[in-house]
Task: structure prediction
Amino acid sequence: MSHSPDQTPFYVGYLPAAPSTRLFVVVVAGLIFGLLAADAYVLATAQPRAGDGEWADAAQVTLSGIIVHEPYPILRITDAGGAPADVLLVGEGKHAAPTTLLDGPATLIGTQIERGGLKMFEVAGTVAPGAASPPALEAPAVEAFGAATLKGQIVDSKCWLGVMRPGEGPVHKGCATLCILGGIPPMLMTRDANGGTRAYLLTGPNGEAANEAVAAFIADPIEISGTIEQRGSFAYFKADFASLKRL
Result:
């Protein structure tokens, strides 16, 4: 009685693989690479956009103007066209602007940060009085826009404006919390249906600094009510913290 030999391909390392084995390896490898590429695409598209913020940390410059604390320190300067413009001031690292900065004329040394026309200056030092002539300017006028309820995310202004990219979202929560508790002004960042962003310096209901009040909600999707004001170059949101809730 004769037996048919087993026709199942058998792999031997020192011999060429059978055609069916080669086909199986190619198909499986292609599927694996395809799944990896799909995962990479999904992860990439799920990340928040990096934004167009810039931090010119390679070179220090000087800026002259008047310092105003309302409630976060700004330096009011004149832009290239001679019009007043406001620059939000912060310190180096995760710190507020130096407490030695007083209201009035000043010339500061530091590095520039900017996103979407909003400007910030990381202060490294001051120029001695008389070494430069700050322009004669007045504090920005306040323009009230009334009550509003906004949805968005609380971010630290320094990272969001350009020091970190994207500077928002859950992965940035720890950094943003340290920055805001260190005195960096908090911002309420909102996004419209087309993905455009608008940022408001976030204050308490009486215009006071809000760093401690928002600490537990940083980087979370939130809804909050309050009133909107425009002071020079920056929009402010005077928040009613009793209305603050996670979404």
